[in-house]
Amino acid sequence: MESKKLLIITYYWPPAGGPGVQRWLKFVKYLPDFGVQPIVYIPENPTYPIVDENLVREVSDKAIILKRNIFEPYQLASFFSKNKTKKISSGIIPNQRKQSFLDKTFLWIRGNLFIPDARVFWVKPSVSYLEKYIKENNIDTIVTSGPPHSLHLIGLQLKQKTNVKWFADFRDPWTTIGYHKSLRLSNYAAKKHKKLEHQVLNAADTIIVTSKTTKTEFQAITSKPIAVITNGYDVENVEKQTLDSKFSLAHIGSFLSERNPKILWESLVELINENPDFKSHLEIKLIGAVSQEVLETIAGFGLNSFLNNLGYVSHSEAIAHQKKSQVLLLIEIDSEDTKSIIPGKLFEYMVSERPIIAIGPKDSDFADIIMQTNTGVFFDYSEKEKLKETILDYYKQFSEGKLKSNAIGLQKYSRKNLTEQLSKLITYNS
């Protein structure tokens, strides 16, 4: 039986690093097992804020890769400040009170001149190229993956021109994504975002989202079918790790200004003052891009002597740190808008056999997953005393050599099972 062809339009692809690349890299890895031939369309010359050359080895040799040039204003903006454009393109936006004139200028330009985002110039040439490719190669099904949400505009126009079956995959929401309010949008720009979001959600044949809250949010905008397919974990070839000798609390991934958990820093300071043994064992391990505000807050609490700031490491190194750190930290912004966010690293955390301390807004979607899988404890930003008690409890288990996570029911979050879900959705709805 001939494989079904699926054209996948995505921006983030190896050698891009960070969480945005993992979802479709893994779907593409397993789709051929379920009778689907992945054809991946990506930019030839992208501006990736994070690069991980090791991920190139993970690209399936069964995938067909199509590349076309992209023009991005980040390439011009980097002449003025390479560091600032890199941070803004990766979502690390300075706290509004601490934004320089250059920060404000870049954010205003990004939010008001490039709608929905700075990759919008790729839309027109991509539609022209892919319309021809779709007709010549008998493609009847496409997927667009955002952010960047401009890729959904490629899907929108291809749907209009070719009437392909179109699945719009939202790794994150559109107008309620955490950084959207920081873009200094004019009324015109805000309305344009809403209009484009409405058009995409009502033109796609099926919407795919990563959380139930995003599904509920989108159901208020469209009557089109919405499927929830979360992110997940893959089987990683990482050697067995020796656990850190210190009581290490590790945060892996981007640590944004708005994710600055003062209740955590306050709890650690109190435990240090109350417990000399705790003080001698504590290590705060940060892996990935960390905002200056977070680093300044840690210093302000007098915690610098406990800090091990490792910066960005390859995905395989990050997995190794997940397996050897004593406790894993998962922090989300304290906002209504972030209840729907289920960080991709959660699923890798869950299979690391290390307990998770998660902090986020009340009723977060990822709180349910942590509870159902018995992989850690979730706290909202009002629960400082409970957080402190849990850290102390984990420290006591660490001191006795007994600290471990006892996870249950993880299999449904494996990348292979999730890809099977995706393949059924695509096959039955095409």
| Terminal Cα span | 16 Å
Structural class: alpha/beta
Strand order of the largest sheet: 3-2-1-4-5-6-7
Tell me, rounded to a whole number, the average pLDDT: 89
Number of strands: 13
The total of helices stands at 15
Helix percent reads 40-55%
Radius of gyration: 22 Å
- Globally, the shape reads globular
Q: What is the strand content?
A: 15-25%
The largest sheet, given as strand count, sense and whether it forms a barrel, is: 7 strands, parallel
Unreliable spans are 76-82, 84-90
> Secondary-structure element sequence?
EHEEHHHEHEHEHEEHHEHEHEHEHEHH
Summarize, please.
The chain is of the alpha/beta class and 430 residues long.
